[in-house]
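forwarding from the other thread:

> can someone predict this with iron/sulfur cluster?

sure thing
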Amino acid sequence: MSSEATTGAHSRTHPAPRVSFVSLGCPKALVDSERIVTRLRAEGYEITRRHDGADLVIVNTCGFLDSAKAESLEAIGQAMAENGRVIVTGCMGAEPEQIARRYPSLLAITGPQQYETVLEAVHRAAPPVHDPFIDLVPPEGIKLTPRHYAYVKISEGCNNRCSFCIIPKLRGNLISRPAAEVLREAELLVRAGVKELLVISQDTSAYGVDLKYAASTWKDREVRARFIDLARGLGELGVWVRLHYVYPYPHVDEVIPLMAEGRVLPYLDIPFQHASPEMLKRMRRPAAQEKTLERIRSWREVAPDLTIRSTFIVGFPGETDADFDVLLEWLSEAQLDRVGCFRYEPVAGASANDLATPVPDEVKDERWHRFMQAQQAISARRLRRKVGTRQQIIVDEIGPTVAKGRSKGDAPEIDGAVYLSARRPLKVGEIVTAKIERADAYDLHATVAGF
Ligand code: SF4
């Protein structure tokens, strides 16, 4: 009998089944993983980090790019080799044939958000041993992120049909959660000690369209399922609120004053992907017609501290030298703070593959380097402007000599860090005021000036 089986006054007659969990892919997949892990813990399963010795392994896969699929297949292979009893779920599970061909003896393959099917497969393979006195799960669920920040998924699926993306095929059309449900989850997280909420979805600015912006009751008042109302509600909780995957629609302008007032972090993650009108049309991007440079300028007038992060694709089929020059020119005008750039990679099933002649790999590489060089200079300049200022920093990790944290302009996992020195020990999750001493290409270095 395992030591867990005899914890406290109650004892189990059987040891708890052990499940090893691998979570791959984007923050949206991470939220799915958290839901599955929460349910399993609630049912008395033990979650372990090792495949070896577990009763079974769940692999939550990512199928967005072919390289992500390869990584997913490799993770499944490793789980098969080390354990042999494997359930596959997530985006790649939406196309089970290629997984089943390679690994015919998997216990089950389920698609994204099929929590119930995953749990049924787990129940069949390793029936639960439940003891309500031992299997206590905090009401906010189990978080896979550190305790001081949490992702809040406000909708599933997407109504757009970007030509390089198969997410709508995998996840279906937009389904938004009622505003009250999201706000209640956020409240529970804050009560449990979360200091930063990261709002995610496939298209945050489209939130509520499918619900016709219906109102729901939160704290004895009606809150509509609208982007701005949700941002306002989250902004009342007294923690950092960061918005990801927003498109530059006109109604996004409404959230900028909330940023200027300090209710929502002055941070927008907007995947622009390109700037040439022809490319945006071919990519079938949402809000492609919007005058984004003017919009960015007016946002910065209202909220001068606004940090804008974005991602771009170079070498999209049919991208000419002229299209690429438009992109570089736009980039130098836009002066974005944080930027990621991908060389276009065909995704099986995406309509972009048949659009036009592919751009040769060496041209993609050359454009990628030119793009990165141009942006690095901009990002470094924008970071340097912070030297000498005082910023609030949230502490993520404590090291032997310095602590690592983030300013309001840095999202976890994707942006840079702030390295902090302090005269007294810091705590993870604490928010301190620090004086920025210097900047390098991606990160800042600071001294704590106040608590
Ligand atoms: S907005 Fe476009 S890229 Fe994003 S999930 Fe929807 S279809 Fe895919």
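Residues 361-384 form the longest helix (24 residues). thats all i got for now
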